[in-house]
Amino acid sequence: MPADSILKHVVVFCLVLSVALTSARAEPGYSSKSTAESVSFRNGMVVSEEQIATLVGLSVLKEGGNAVDAAVAVGFALAVTHPRAGNLGGGGFMLVHLGETGRTVAIDYREKAPLKATRNMFLDENGEVDMERARHSVYSSGVPGTAAGLSLALEKYGTMPLEKVLAPAIRLAEEGFAVTPELRKSLLGAKGRMKKSSESTEVFFKNNGEPPREGEILRQKNLAWSLKEISKNGSGAFYRGAIAKKITAYMKKEGGLITERDLASYEALIREPVTGNYRGYSIHSMPPPSSGGVHLIQMLNILERYPLSRYGHNSARYIHILSETMKLAYADRSKYLGDPDFSPVPTEHLISKQYAKRLANRINPQKATPSRYVKPGSPVPVGGTDTTHFTVADRFGNVVSNTYTLNFAYGSGLAVPGTGILLNNEMDDFSAKPGVPNAYGLIGGEKNSIGPGKRMLSSMTPTIVFKDEKLFLATGSPGGSRIITSVLQVILNVIDHKMSIREATAAPRIHHQWLPDTLYVERKAEKDLEAGLRKKGYEVKRTGPMGSTQSVARISGLFYGATDPRHPGGLAQGY
Ligand code: GLY
């Protein structure tokens, strides 16, 4: 199968895009009132935050590739067309369900702290966290994992050669694509940070200092070079070859920490997913070093003890139980979660039904418990952002649920000269100092302190839900600390509130993360919610959109997709 035929499909698909979008893309603005289910498809489905990338994945499926081939192609394409989060210079997590064996595996390609990283590297002379150094400097980057993770997924579970799945991304980088309003807007937002880097400035800004206008063609020649290197030489090009040389030369020049040894020793890992049961549905999600799966299952276990459907979606009573549950989970996150390769995480206890029962007993059914009184529990007996998610399902029963990131939009804003590769600022996901929140307001503990070669704790929650061992729902989201609660609410909306996947995606969300002691409610939620919630003791803060879930549901053998209308530009498309 020539790689060119995949490209032809993408071109043809772009031409029919306007037709496709009327059926399956997100409507601008969102409303929980919509009752229409998206159009269903029999053979496969791709959902991502960026339309061209979705079409690249769909072409791979139509060429006979499986969900993993398509997901890897989407992952590389997003590095070109959705540069604020799609990446080569970041990392992430991929859940793969294999139709043939019924097995689900978790691929961990999270960034790692460089070997020269030290526990207090982000503290200034007064012992305070230097936010600029932690978030926007050459020290902000962990050793990237994306090239290793996508290659490992393809090698183990795909059917196509790397060269073929990379071809669309290379062509998009080389020949360019029309800038969307979303891309321009995000570049304007990150301009200040990106201007510190000559490579970022050259690639993403014109001579007049402005990002390209909507409709102008963005070409990324250096990124095309990097992608071609990976196409020719595999991910070794990134970790030991020509790209590695450019990364380490940049680090040496700027005084950064990433060395040849860091890159050469980086490995993506295959881990066992964390699993649970919720009202007869089987939940598979990401284990540590993401906190996502553990706390998703922990919260579902607590919530299973309440008749949520009777409370009614987003009623004050419902939001109260959800918020108290979220507080308990995020309090535990601050103490027990970190890289399991460095110190043990009590996953089994945190996701046990017994522990959930004990935690549920701590919830006052009438009143909010102030967060200062909510301490992490004892699971052991006595004892912004910008990330992106995509989901792919094929007719062979394979499913991929993948979340990856640079951390902030465009990461640190710095790019490696000559490569077009933006660098993550994931080091800020470590706890730079106990008790001091990171960019998402998350407090971390000893387990998530900085250590050489250690993976920083994440909230990414790529998840697959099965009913009777068959795919029921696959989902995930960007959103920093809000990822876990966004995924939670999509699952609750579908299972408890019987919403279609589109309704479940669009329905207004809430979020509580223990600290700060604030209940965030999306502006779109019912106007009169506050009074009831304040009476229960909540400090309620209205907020803009939270999360951007990209989901595939399967009902009676048919695929339904939903891209999150909170962020226009995505596409759910099947065939
Ligand atoms: N960088 C956001 C996360 O991994 O949770």
What descriptive keywords fit this protein?
about 575 residues, alpha+beta, 7-stranded antiparallel beta sheet, 21 helices, globular, binds glycine
Description:
- The chain contains 21 helices and 21 strands.
- Helix 1 crosses helix 7 (162-175) and helix 7 (162-175) packs antiparallel against helix 10 (221-233).
- The protein is globular.
- The protein binds glycine.
- Residues 387, 405, 407, 426, 429, 458-460, 480 line the site of glycine (GLY).
Q: Percent of residues in helical segments? A: 25-40%
Determine the strand fraction and express it as a percent band. 15-25%
Largest sheet, in brief, is:
7 strands, antiparallel
Radius of gyration (CA) equals: 22 Å
Mean pLDDT comes to 93
User: What structural category characterises the helix and strand content?
Assistant: alpha+beta
Q: Any ligands, ions or cofactors bound here, and which?
A: glycine
Instruction: Tell me, briefly, the overall form.
Output: globular
- Poorly predicted runs: 15-37
Number of strands: 21
Question: Termini distance?
Answer: 19 Å
Quaternary assembly: single chain
Number of helices: 21
Report strand order across the widest sheet. 1-20-19-15-14-9-8
